[in-house]
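Quick one, probably user error.
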């Protein structure tokens, strides 16, 4: 099943025009070519001016810079009326960029900064919306340690690692990140987080590995001979 371009035209093999790593609408491109040809012909342009693209003029360049100053991206500024981001203004910008490489890099950089800023603002707004609808649990008055130990999964580590996971769960309860009803899910998260953070402690170790930093005795030698000496 074929999709559609932003302009609304169908996006299939016949209507897709490859251009600079993207696919643009061939219908919109042909319509712009015909409109441009009639306009330049009526203005009395020469054959070279009709069949060859021209660079940005001073007014178009100032419009582009003003759009970047308002926080818009390059694709948003140069999109045509049908919604295609690589319209005639973008084509003229590409020609201008060939002879002004340093300035063009600054334009691309500002465009990327504007895009990232808009994404960050949208993400922060989404977080504020989530914070408004999520009900944070009320921290308990006292910690029920037996209930915390009961909520630990069977794969929980032992020893000092066990104490570290329990301490993390206590802090989650006291700071309101979870409640006793969701303690089991939070315990699974803390155990998995501990194993991910200290994965090198739980992997298989080769018998040819050195037993200590001093000497050339391996772990296998220590197991086969050292324990019986």
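Nope, works fine. Designed sequence:
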């Amino acid at each position: 099943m074929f999709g559609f371009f932003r302009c609304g035209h169908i996006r299939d093999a016949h209507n897709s025009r490859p251009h600079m790593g993207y696919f643009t609408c061939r219908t919109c491109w042909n319509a712009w070519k015909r409109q441009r040809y009639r306009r330049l012909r009526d203005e009395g342009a020469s054959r070279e001016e009709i069949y060859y693209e021209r660079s940005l003029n001073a007014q178009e360049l100032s419009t582009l810079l003003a759009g970047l100053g308002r926080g818009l991206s390059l694709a948003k500024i140069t999109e045509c009326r049908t919604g295609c981001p690589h319209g005639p203004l973008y084509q003229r910008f590409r020609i201008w960029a060939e002879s002004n490489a340093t300035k063009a890099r600054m334009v691309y950089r500002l465009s990327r900064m504007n895009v990232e800023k808009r994404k960050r603002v949208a993400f922060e707004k989404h977080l504020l919306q989530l914070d408004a609808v999520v009900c944070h649990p009320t921290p308990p008055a006292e910690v029920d340690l037996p209930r915390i130990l009961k909520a630990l999964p069977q794969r929980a580590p032992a020893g000092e690692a066990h104490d570290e996971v329990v301490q993390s769960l206590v802090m989650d309860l006291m700071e309101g990140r979870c409640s006793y009803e969701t303690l089991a899910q939070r315990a699974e998260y803390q155990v998995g987080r501990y194993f991910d953070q200290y994965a090198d402690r739980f992997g298989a170790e080769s018998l040819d590995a050195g037993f200590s930093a001093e000497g050339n005795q391996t772990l296998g030698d220590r197991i086969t001979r050292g324990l019986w000496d």
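The chain is about 55% helix and 5% strand.
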